[in-house]
Amino acid sequence: MNSPPETPSQPVSDAELLMAHINGDAHAFSEIVRRHRDRMWAVALRTLGDPDEAADAVQDAFVSAYRKAGSFRGEAAVTTWLHRIVVNACLDRMRRKSVRPVADDELIEAAERDTPLPDQTGEREVSLEVSAALKLLPPDQRAALVLVDMMGYSVEDAAQVLDVPSGTVKSRCARGRAKLAPILAHLRNRSDLSRVSSAKGAELRDG
Amino acid sequence: MTGDTHYDLEVLAELAEGLLDADTARQVREHLAVCDPCGERLADLAAVREVLAAIPTPAMPMGVALRIDKALEAERAGVAVMSSPEPPARLGVVADDGTVVPARTRRRRTARRWAMPAAAAAAAAAVMGGVTLSTLNNSATVVAASPSASASAQSQAARAYDLTESDHNFSDGDLKEPLNEYLGPAKITQPVAETENQVSKCVDAVENRSKLKPFAVHQALYNGSEALIMASWRNEAAKQIRIDIVEPFHCKPLRKAAVGRW
Description:
- The complex is a heterodimer.
- By secondary structure, chain A is mostly helical.
- Chain A has helices at 14-22, 28-48, 51-67, 78-96, 104-114, 123-134, 139-150, 155-162, 166-184, 191-205.
- Chain A has two domains: 1-98, Rna Polymerase Sigma Factor, Chain: A (Orthogonal Bundle), CATH 1.10.1740.10; 101-207, Arc Repressor Mutant, subunit A.
- Helices cover 69% and strands 0% of the residues of chain A.
- Chain B folds into two domains: 9-54, no CATH class; 86-261, no CATH class.
- By secondary structure, chain B is an alpha+beta fold.
- In chain B, 36% of the residues are buried.
- Chain B is built from eight helices and nine strands.
- Classes of the chains: A mainly alpha, B alpha+beta.
């Protein structure tokens, strides 16, 4: 059983670790997990909006990645591959719970019902509110928005993770944002956010 | 769009993503230049991005990290148990003219998902061949082509269904095809007790829901996740089946039951 070489100046790449794992190195996969678990957790938690579900999804995903490491072809980065497995685990969970598409008037109702006073919304409340709003979206749109808007990945990276064309990611994001806008618009007036949004609006308006 | 009509959020969001064709985009921009409500809505859309980006991303809680380490450790232990050089038993099919032809194998396994000692595997394959006989259509008879098919059959005695496995990733489209095209040629599974119990628990769960007895159970993937795909007769004469797909750990359905063909 050989452990990965401990050379801090030349860290072992994810791909090398995965190869070592496939070749029977008992510790290589743990290192991959250690490197990426926070990001995988963030993706799952944001996508599912529930810590218990997210824990199950990430665990299933890592176990599944452990098992099917041999099918990793190396045409995508290891991180992309891991993201894909995590996102798919999340999507499966959401579909299983039969998330029903929400009608527009329900969205508006939710917006009216849930709107707290802007200056009373702390960071935690905003986070909960966003989480609740995301749950109203169909899984595909939610996953796209989590990757692009929340995790800050490029549309191209998100497209690789979701295994769809870039244009599909863009349109899922667009439709998702359109649904969220009425619900989250009141947050626009928060002092730390309004500045950015109006600048962005102006930029878009002027082409 | 002209006059005092406004653009809806979706069109504005598509404009922001550059998804509109040049002409439409120009029209919408011209409208935005003179329409305050639409400009406001565009700002609302931009705010969505900002709000989402501003949500902090937390680190994985220690409890979850430990749980995952444990699960992977168990996985490692499982892999150690199941490594065995003995090749799995292959089935042959007796054709109408009495010759034995090898069963088709659709795809090569790349990884074993279920822990299973291969020695027991060969034995059970023989047994499973007998069981398959009763469920396949009568024109073909399945026999074990493995020489090591000697030992016996206690585990299967209680089991009323065929248990097979493959690496196939089933999608909804596949369910429209006759299911035995996938399951018929698949590799017979010889599960260790733990797997056997788990599968049988899920079969019971499905039977409870459907009030039908699954006659074929297949370990594979469904939309990328591990799944047990079960077939029960709705109408055996018409080869009409009910297909239940559940995840193998808690037996929760991965999709609504489907009506399929055998």
